[in-house]
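Hi L.,

You mentioned the student needs an example of a multi-chain input paired with its predicted structure. This one should do, with 224 residues in total across all chains.
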Amino acid sequence: QLQLQESGPGLVKPSETLSLTCTVSGGSIDSSNYYWGWIRQPPGKGLEWIGSIFHNGNTNYNPSLKSRVTISVDTSRNKFSLKLTSVTAADTAVYYCARKVAADIWGQGAMVTVSS
Amino acid sequence: EIVLTQSPGILSLSPGERATFSCRASQSLSSSYLAWFQQKPGQAPRLLIYATSSRATGIPDRFSGSGSGTDFTLTISRLEPEDFAVYYCQQYDSSWYTFGQGTKLEIK
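Structure written out for the whole complex:
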């Protein structure tokens, strides 16, 4: 059974870079013709799509975040990662990794707080 | 950017009743790539419906989706206690995927 798990620092200082990794278990990123993506949810608010990556490295980013976002994939380690630069308090959210564009499998979510 | 507007904001119903959720897009979804998610407190969202009307794996048949163009609907035919949650629509018809603001289904 495919599972996704986010990992990374729970606290990031303003202006620094948020880095998260999603580890995929129970299946291979490389053998699937799926997009793998990141979605976030500020406390008490709705969902926002951040971006997605195909196993071959092709990416698609939310234009409102594109200048700050990089998503990469490491097929040898069955992981994909998110980097968000120059963070502010507005980037405080639960960050989810997920499989497919219409996400059918989600990680449990990682709370990231931006604060000094 | 395609903006999705969900209505109502809050839906108050009793178990056994029928629930209807609306999602209106600011532009026509030419490929009808619209999904519905259910989210309970402290949990990740769960995919219910994709491509407007296809049920995801393991989703009971009391959940159904319909619509085309700019108007889409999620229907729960007969509410079970576990259905009370927040529901989101998402379009992936354009390359900028967007979510609606959500509808909270509460127990009346």
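You could point out the following to them. Chain A has no helices and eleven strands. The interface with chain B takes residues 46-49, 52, 60, 62-64, 96, 101-104, 106-109 of chain A (CB under 8 Å).

Best wishes,
N.
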